[in-house]
């Protein structure tokens, strides 16, 4: 049997999340290569066999194989030997054990974050451990207090969740919960700064592309990225926002976010957080509205405004985004040409702005941004 190292082994102090992902997945493949292909959940069996002391109702690979053997024997005795008595005798305890294994949680919020992290790190390849552990940490993080965030970080929640997302990156449920907690913990300035340095921006954008059709992954990815951009632009983390923004733009974030918004055009939360994220991706130091023009943001905002006409927050952020794209420099000939082209390809732009102003007359943002758009576009055209 191949020797399995713990996840903490062979790590570099400055290893980024993308490099960490490659290393952990390479190790996972090496483990699987040494296990007979006929064994189910191969990585999970090997890891549990090596762990030795399994948690309550967390069976080792041997016990799982025994359950499968008893179940097959039960079927064989019942249907081929015609002995219902022996079949039932074997099936009842097997069924009870399996039901307990499936229904009894390995960890729950009342156990606390330390226990959740312990279960997740002890059984990194076991889906139930990762799903219940991430659910527990997500539930605890919803308290959203400074003390709770610091407690979760001190207990190793961030590392456990990132490893879970890496080792189960095709599992949308685990990834969504992990990113949700990362977004909450990123409200701590020092944590957000460390995450940006560790390539968390690129890491999250990778999951947005992998799970494009998964609403929960998109929503929590966007909230996590907004948290990184906002927190690192104020207080202790001030200054890191420029790096986070640059990393996002280099990783094609504008296009990725627009694709996600288009894939979930009817989902208000995705539209709101996506629009807010796009707004935070631009400022004077990142080329102003240039990344928005290149990424096709105007066309996406028009779709969003059309599909969520009665949602004031979405309308306000959307009109604000249009103001960034259409009012940057009306005296510039190139800019005037670009605005004219946008107006021609999106004839409802001004109409949508006017509708938003009419529908929300008490919204200062919509009124101010709308007035600026109508004034500057009139000058250009």
Automatic annotation (TrEMBL):
Stored InterPro entries: ARM-like, ARM-type_fold, ARM_LRRK2
Transmembrane parts of this sequence: 62-81, 88-107
Keyword flag Hydrolase: no
Gene3D superfamilies named in the record: Leucine-rich Repeat Variant (1.25.10.10)
Database matches in SUPFAM superfamilies: ARM repeat
This protein's UniProt keywords: Membrane, Transmembrane, Transmembrane helix
Domain LRRK2 ARM repeat: 134-326
Name this protein carries in UniProt: LRRK2 ARM repeat domain-containing protein
Organism whose genome encodes this protein: Hondaea fermentalgiana
């Amino acid at each position: 049997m191949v020797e399995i190292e713990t996840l903490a082994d062979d790590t570099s102090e400055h290893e980024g999340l993308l490099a960490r992902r490659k290393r952990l997945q390479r190790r996972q493949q090496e483990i699987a290569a040494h296990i007979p292909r006929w064994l189910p959940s191969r990585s999970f069996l090997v890891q549990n066999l090596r762990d030795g002391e399994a948690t309550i109702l967390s069976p080792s690979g041997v016990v799982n194989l025994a359950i499968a053997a008893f179940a097959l024997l039960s079927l064989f005795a019942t249907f081929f030997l015609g002995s219902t008595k022996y079949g039932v005798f074997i099936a009842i305890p097997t069924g009870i054990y399996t039901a307990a294994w499936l229904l009894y949680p390995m960890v729950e919020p009342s156990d606390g974050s330390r226990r959740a992290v312990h279960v997740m790190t002890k059984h990194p390849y076991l889906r139930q451990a990762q799903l219940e552990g991430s659910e527990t940490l997500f539930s605890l993080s919803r308290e959203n207090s400074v003390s709770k965030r610091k407690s979760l970080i001190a207990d190793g929640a961030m590392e456990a969740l990132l490893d879970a997302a890496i080792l189960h990156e095709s599992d949308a449920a685990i990834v969504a919960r992990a990113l949700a907690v990362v977004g909450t913990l990123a409200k701590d300035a020092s944590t957000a700064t460390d995450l940006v340095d560790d390539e968390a921006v690129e890491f999250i954008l990778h999951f947005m592309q992998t799970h494009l059709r998964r609403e929960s992954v998109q929503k929590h990815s966007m909230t996590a990225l907004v948290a990184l951009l906002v927190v690192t632009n104020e207080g202790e983390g001030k200054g890191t926002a420029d790096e986070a923004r640059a990393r996002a733009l280099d990783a094609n974030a504008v296009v990725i976010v627009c694709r996600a918004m288009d894939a979930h055009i009817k989902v208000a939360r995705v539209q709101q957080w996506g629009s807010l994220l796009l707004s935070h991706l631009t400022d004077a130091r990142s080329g102003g509205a240039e990344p928005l023009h290149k990424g096709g943001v105007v066309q996406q905002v028009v779709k969003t405004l059309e599909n969520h006409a009665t949602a004031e927050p979405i309308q306000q952020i959307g009109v604000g985004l249009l103001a960034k794209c259409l009012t940057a420099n009306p005296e510039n000939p190139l800019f005037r040409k670009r605005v004219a082209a946008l107006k021609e390809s999106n004839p409802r732009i001004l109409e949508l702005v006017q509708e938003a102003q009419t529908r929300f007359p008490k919204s200062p943002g919509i009124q101010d941004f709308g007035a600026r758009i109508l004034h500057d576009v009139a000058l250009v055209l």
